[in-house]
Amino acid sequence: MIIDAHQHFWRIDRGDYSWMDDSVAAIRRDILPPDLAPLAAAGGVSGTVAVQAAPTLAETEFLLSLADQSPLIRGVVGWIDLTGDVPAQLTRLSHPRLKGIRPMLQDIADTNWILRPDVLAGLEAVAAAGLRMDVLITPRHFEAIDTLAQRLPQLPLILDHCAKPVFDGSDPGVAWREGIAAFAAHPQVSCKLSGLATEFGPGWSAEALRPVFDHVLRHFGPERLMWGSDWPVLELAGSYPNWLAAAQQLTADLSPEARHQIFAATATRIYTLT
């Protein structure tokens, strides 16, 4: 059994995917569960976590409606306005498959936005509702997110795409390594092995990504590391089969139990998937 802890669906005519410019023309098409189903079946993927791709409640409701139709979707990470009435929004979105929320921090100019008092109050309500926060950041956010983890230890934080390292060859840089180490010191933080092919770009391979993998494995351990495809964004740099194969190559020397954690058990436990 494999759980894909991070993938997306969208329907273009919904109209709230403002980031879909010509630079992502290759994936600017409707992406729905029947498109993923054959890829998942071929890879042995039995369930996924569908993650928001637009900062609207309507898109989260769209993903939850897909979860009602597709047993492949085991969980949804949606979006809410953390500066608004969070309990009311969570009531509107109440659904057993809603597992967390994700503010699109990488697109917010203010690196410290997440530490605003009104945002922190919103996140306290998220934690009180038993939900998690996916952390969509780049290395510029490490200090702010480390502070967030200190202030809200009751909020599980799931780091998307290994914090999007900036590669110089295969080297993700000292600042990235130090940030990951500091972030991993918080027990409520976990990490997704996802998005790395896209961040590396042309010429990526399992071995080119090994320095990142080795570092996150060392600091998070398999019990806080989960594999995700980031499909269909992945198609900008690779394919579902070759990213899954690369992840399996990276983990080939681990014990069967450790591989099971990374490819299924960590996501199932942290997102409380059923």
Please describe the structure with a list of short key phrases separated by commas or semicolons.
274 residues; alpha/beta; TIM Barrel; 8-stranded parallel beta sheet; 10 helices; globular
Q: What is the CA-based Rg, rounded?
A: 17 Å
- Distance, first to last CA: 13 Å
Briefly note the structural class of the backbone: alpha/beta
CATH fold label: TIM Barrel
Describe the structure.
With 274 residues, the protein is of the alpha/beta class. The protein has one domain: TIM Barrel (Alpha-Beta Barrel), CATH 3.20.20. It has ten helices and eight strands. The chain has an eight-stranded parallel sheet. Helix 3 links the parallel strand 3 and strand 4. Helix 5 runs parallel beside helix 6 and helix 6 packs parallel to helix 8. The longest helix is centred in the C-terminal third of the chain and has 15 residues. The protein is globular, with a radius of gyration of 17 Å. The model has no long low-confidence stretch (mean pLDDT 97).
In short:
With 274 residues, this protein is α/β, with parallel strands linked by helices.
How do the helices and strands line up, and which of them pair or pack?
Elements: E1 2-7, H1 33-43, E2 45-51, H2 57-69, E3 73-78, H3 86-92, E4 98-101, H4 117-128, E5 132-135, H5 142-151, E6 157-159, H6 174-184, E7 189-193, H7 196-200, H8 206-220, E8 225-227, H9 240-250, H10 256-270
Parallel strand pairs: 1-2, 2-3, 3-4, 4-5, 5-6, 6-7, 7-8
